[in-house]
Amino acid sequence: MKLFGALPVKLKLIILLLFISFATLVISSAFFIYNDLRGFKENLLKNLTVLAGTVGASSRAAIYFNDQERATEILSSLKEDSQIQYAAIYNSKGDIFVTYENGDISLQKPQVKKDTFHIIKNGIIELKQPIFLKDKRIGEIYLSADLREYNIYVNNYLFMVGMILFSTFGVAIILSFVLQKFLSKPIQTLAKTVKAISNSSDYSIRVDYQNKDEIGDLYYGFNQMISQIEKREIELTVKNSFLKKEIEQRNRAEDSLKTYAKELKRSNQELQEFAAIASHDLQEPLRKIITFGDRIAKEFPETNERGNDYIERMQKASERMKKFINDLLEYSKIESKANPFKREDLNNIFSDAMESLEFQITESQAQISCDSLPTLEVDSFQIHQLFQNLIGNAIKYKKENDPPVIQINACSIGNGLWEIVVKDNGIGIDSEYLERIFKPFERLHGKNEYEGSGMGLTICRKIANRHGGNISASSVPQKGSTFRITLPEIQKREKESSIFPSEKCLENMTGFDT
Questions:
Q1: I need a labelling partner for 19 at 20 to 30 A (CA). Which of 156, 399, 470, 496 fits?
Q2: What is the pTM of this model?
């Protein structure tokens, strides 16, 4: 079948036509041969039966009067039929009465115990039937004939059929070569057209076929398909042209972005250096202001009440300024002074954070419970700072007469992420401020109510983002707040982010009250 599948369509059609013609001729010839030879055999047996009946009828008197000479004379008449090789007449007792032999053939008395039978085997026909006289069986006649005439007929018939098959098959071959063109030529034309289009990519080529048969439908469908491909090819060419221009524009934009990113990185580096220098340079005069304020308060106690108020306000503003500068420096260090990620047990980091908050926990009588925490790839120092800020805020923003109750737990949320939940029973936050609290220097309460610079949660978000995670909050006023931190179990890469607050954040620094 594989070899046949690799043949050209023209040769396939010729082979199929010849196979069909040959199969039809063979089946038809076999049917006619079988039918004709069966009829010939039936006629041969019928003639032999008639001959046996005639001889038996002629021998009735001889058998009845036991006249063997007359019976022998009657059987001798069978020599006119060369096919009869042996004949015998039996009396009523089943004994041989007379026999006839043609040539050297010597046959025994038949062993079949039937009044009538006929057998065709080994090229011989044997027949036996009774002889009746007035409805009384008086004997039997047996005839044996060869099939020479039948064999000659079969040979001549087969030769004639063979000649017919040969000549008919020859005509079929000629007709196959002629008729296959009506089917193979259109298919070959279509194949050549497909090959030409494939080699040249010229979709303007079409095939022409006027007939309305299935091949005509195939040609029409092929032309329609090529027309659609040509149309799409034109559309794709136009789109590719636009896409090429867009890619060029994007490449130029990417180059510009790379240049801008490089400049931004350099600018951030400069800002980082500026933050370190500024924090140091600003802290020095602040220390002097605080120091000289303390000296004035100690050395000049006789200063009037108004002067003491000015000094006190100056010192408080200086302390707040110092806190702002320290928090700003801590914020910038999240990226610039970060440690490499390592697999750390968060339970140990949490215990260290609790030790740092021991005084606040004891003073506020806070009740803190923590479930088992996972082992993740983290910067242990920054996660320590995150825990300390969140729990410190929960203690700071507690209800006035209720000790803070803080719960910490963790669970895997799939895709290699863990969620750490910090829940408290504090004063809570209005829902409209839940996103605002993560912005730098954002405070929801006056400086006289709660201490702080407004950078604690900003630093928490910065740490979560640097770890490839996030932090979000939900809260109900006077019922408490819940902070959810998502962190990956394994770090893929460190996120690039700004290492310095925006200009708007810097503007907020000027809002110090003296």
A1: 156
A2: 0.42
